Amino acid sequence: MNKRENKSESKRHFKVCHQNLCIHQINFQKQSFLVSIDSLDGFVELHVISQRDDLKRIKLNAKQLRVFRAAILYTDDNLIKDCDFTYSDPSLDICQSENKRNLDTFSGSHSSVVQSVDPDRGNGELLVEVPEDIPEIVSAVKERTVIRLHIDFAVERPKGGVQFVVPESDGSLAERGAHMFTYRYENSNRLWFPCVDSYSEVCTWRMEFTVDLNMIAVSCGELIETVYTSDNKKKTYHYSLSTPTCAPNIALAVGPFEVMVDPFMHEVTHFCLPHLLPLLRDTCGFLHEAFEFYEELLSSRYPYTCYKQVFVDESYEEFQSFATMTVLSTNLLHSRHIIDQTYHSRRLLSHAIAQQFFGCFITMQSWSDAWLSRGISAFLASQYYKKAFGNNEYRFDLYQQLQEVIQYEQKYRGVVLDPTKQSSSETNAFYFPIKHLHTISPLYDSAHKKKSYLVIRMLENYLGRELLLQVFNKLLSLAINAAPQKFSANVWFNFMISTNSFVWAISTVTGKNIDTFLQQWVYDGGHAKFHSSFVFNRKRNTVELEIKQTDTHMTGVKKYVGPLVVTVQELDGTFKHPVQIEDNMTKHDLTCHSKSRRNKKKKIPLCTGEEVDMDLSAMDPDSPVLWIRIDPEMQLLREVVLEQPDYQWQYQLRFERDVMAQMDVIHFIDRFSTPQTRNALTDTINNEQCFYRVRCAATLCLRKVANQMASTWTGPPAMLSIFRKIFGSHSCPHIIKLNNFSKFQHYFLQKAMPISMAGLRNIHGICPQEVLKFLLDLFKYNDNSKNKFSDNYYRAALIDALSETVTPVVTAVLNPIGQQITAEALSTDTKCILEEITRYLNLDKLLPCYRHTVTVSCLKAIRHLQKMGHLPSNPMFFREYAVSGVFIDVRKAALKALIDITKSEVRKEDLDFLLDLVENESIPCIRLYILKQFGKNPPFVKNQQNILNTEDLVDRLWHLMNSQLSYDSSIRCAVVDLYYALYGRGRPSCLPKPEFSVVLNLKEKKATVSTALVANDDLETLESSARMDMDVEDNINESKETDESFNDLEIVPKRRTFDEIINDTKLTREREKSPQSAHEIQLSPQTTAPEVNESVAETVSEDIDMTSTSHNQSLPELSSDLTTSQMPSTATPMTSEAEATVNPLKEKSKKDRDRDESGGHSSKPHKDKKKKKKKHKHKEHKDKHKHKHKDKDKDRDRDRQDRHHSHDRTASSGGSTNTSPVKYT
């Protein structure tokens, strides 16, 4: 295999060896930066080398830019030749057809549009014509020398790629902390300067940025000099990046930053906004340790000469890595008094440094190779995470990421890391194209990153840690050696990593072939799922293990063939047994190395080498097996469902030292609600040697077990005595000690246990009074005066626990239906809960805590009280916290509550408010957050009858993802996710049913339904009735008759507004109260609707398709515990009498009613004759067809006859009798 196989060389007819970027003016008021068109000092200059003798045009990438001029400099005197250029951005409007509102059509158009401007395919939005009348230019093209292409451009009020943050307050821009920075979703730097926006096009860079005197410009590369203007009002920063770098890895940040040079590494510089320097010191104090760790791990020095960290506000992501610099969120900054944020921030900051090695210095060659740069950088970051926080933290994080990937794949489909070898039918299984970076779902993208890391870690087990690190060193060495060399496509190709080059490096270093591994886990999606059970054979002293793969038909699950490791913990130690999986069900005999003991106590050796005392009274006296584990080192992407007795789970929880094994037990053991399980979980919580995350998870598991044992539980509530024993005062256990978080394990346990206890329920489904009093005492006696760490996360956890105690059962008893929710109607306990939440909410406004964690928990608690019926729903309360200017974490909590209210109470006003934010919000991450939360909790689901399910919503979402989000493909794809959650892949059911057509295939003599305009539920029925083998001549003859009868059919119903529907519904209710309609009228498909409410029934039936049964599901259910509150005008419920007037099917057309009134005959006899003639003709056609093909198989003729007869019956059963396969209605 040739490592230097460049996929993009044959598609792009030129190479860029150097680029100059010069920006002279940045206007914060107008939120734009301009490049002068009058001076050549302000430009983008690309040094282009032709790869063919007749280069006629150069295609570049440019979005939302105003391009003023394109010119080529030639000769040493810098003579200028203006070039003709054209600009076209097809992503501004994906689908040209407005009536095809299904995702299959959109996905096909989306993929085509993205490919049409894909630089890896030699395409782009900006096309520059190369002059052919200048000999010097023609000669440079033929001789493959440098062509200097100048482009003058401007960016005004960019919608994406550049974020201007200008706080509204008094003072100058610097005093207000105004700043700007660039961001990107993968390769999208075309949004702020013209370039070849591809990871596979690397070149050297020189950049100049002119800013105000009190501003600092931070960019990639090394700062060469800073030049001040003659009037001393502006200054220009000159940066040089001599290491070949691709355009997507270039960034810029401008602001009144405070600067801190790292005291341990002078080549590292940190930048933050004013007044945040103390937090910057505490957050970045460890960074030199991460650099040293990576250099030692990879046996290679840091590849750049400098490194810069810039902390900004309103960042697109928590961090984004660029060449020699990283743009991070200010929310990652923390003081040394914050515990929880330290774990998160250090992990992200160390990951950003790892991406400097793989991701910036060595980039992916194309999207199909992204799994390598993503996976390797995440693998390196996990190694530092293990070094900094321990092996248990590392393995717990590994376990969590595996579970998240499994959940995604089982809900959607398997994640394919490299889709190049996927067939079109396999890629079409997704509702979005997976072969391009800018068309995939954000959820898929997140799962792709996690799975990439998991697969690289599997390679560590497959090759060995040392060999894998040697492969990384080989790749880095080739790139470092190529950095100082002049432009050469074969040399600079070492800065890119592809699947082929990675396989070449592994083969060169290790001599191993990983083709089978790649086929299983890289070129194909999904994971394995094993169902295992075993019995001990006493006579043979073996374990008979059975492993099944019975769920291969499930979404995201595939059949695995290959080796598998099974470990058996016996009385004499831990023994590994490699087995081979070949079929869906395999049986294996595992020889035991121990013999059973009867009432003999002896220390049991564990896998770690330690020996422990065990009480063996609970185990089977005839079996030496304590427990069994399948794939203990997680060498596969798999889910294991293991069946073993409860005592073996309990032994494994108590004595197994692996975190992943203990977490497996916690996920399975709650099925055994016994006193023994209770004791095992209690011992785990009490065990100081157990990992703190396992202890916290055990508290939640014990809560489930305790609730299942509520009728037989004895003693105090679960975990209450444990908490008082660890954290209570010695003299008075019910009074908690002063906070002391110096022991982090106790700190996290102290946060987790109150939340777990709050979920306890007695036999009546109510939180025990003792637990509620205990939680209120925690608020009362909480004292952090002598604690050196902040207690903001602890107080937030207490509020979460307090809200968890509220149940709807209490509300049903205290608030009968019809009673308004007032303070007097609340119970004493609820009043206490509400007072504590209100007090902490107001206190956090006066004395804000770190990241407003208390306010976030208070908002969640208030929403929970509303859902339980203790408080009336008040969306305006959450809207006040969701507006711009509020801290971002608080906004997200309020937005999540509003999304929940929109779904549960079917509020159109809130849905419009949220969609307005998606369209107009200035912070991109907020827009993306709203769409992701909508995807997780949609206001309705596919084909559900709901007031919100309207044609207006379809139009709005379609317009949003089709033509309003060309500048941010991530947000556009998030809208696609929401559209899929609401309507599926087909045409939304709320739209009017248009005509559909049958496509005639003259070659195969078949007719197939065109499903572009058909709803999901109708696809199978229509296809089965329309895919019939017919003679082509008969199809053409019948199509003529169809055109005549089809013109009289009314297809599209009258459009009505939402308010008109509601008003007509109210009118119907008033009419139903009259004596004429005192009795209910039951409608059936054979009866017609009453004349009185015909317009209302037609409107409701055609526009929102609401039946008497589904209507009850679409409105918020008022349970007996909720008091009546004023319903919004858009959700006025109909009475049962009004429901009776709604036809469960669509209203019949006037022609159908006339036919029913005339005894089943049509009121237009001339049409009836035509239909009879057509039926007669169709029968003659069948006889002729059978005579023609009498030599064919009899079964096939019988099937064809059945299909024709079924079609005749359908055509003659009351609707249109059209038998032609050309058009249907």
From TrEMBL:
Intracellular or extracellular location(s): Nucleus
Compositionally biased residues, Basic residues: 1163-1191
Keywords: Nucleus, Transcription, Transcription regulation
One Gene Ontology molecular-function label: chromatin binding
Comp. bias intervals (Basic and acidic residues): 1145-1159, 1192-1202
An example Gene Ontology CC term for this record: transcription factor TFIID complex
Domain Peptidase M1 membrane alanine aminopeptidase: 288-521
The protein's name: Transcription initiation factor TFIID subunit 2
Region (Disordered): 1065-1225
Lineage: superkingdom: Eukaryota
Biased composition (Polar residues): 1075-1090, 1106-1135, 1211-1225
Pfam family, one: TAF2_3rd
Ranges where the Transcription initiation factor TFIID subunit 2 Ig-like domain occurs: 526-645
PANTHER family on file: TRANSCRIPTION INITIATION FACTOR TFIID (PTHR15137), TRANSCRIPTION INITIATION FACTOR TFIID SUBUNIT 2 (PTHR15137:SF9)
GO biological process: RNA polymerase II preinitiation complex assembly
Family: Belongs to the TAF2 family.
Domain Transcription initiation factor TFIID subunit 2 TPR repeats, chain residue ranges per copy: 646-1008
SUPFAM superfamilies: ARM repeat, Leukotriene A4 hydrolase N-terminal domain, Metalloproteases ('zincins'), catalytic domain
Keyword Membrane: no
Keyword Aminoacyl-tRNA synthetase: no
InterPro entries: Aminopeptidase_N-like_N_sf, ARM-type_fold, Ig-like_TAF2, Peptidase_M1_dom, Peptidase_M4/M1_CTD_sf, TAF2, TPR_TAF2_C
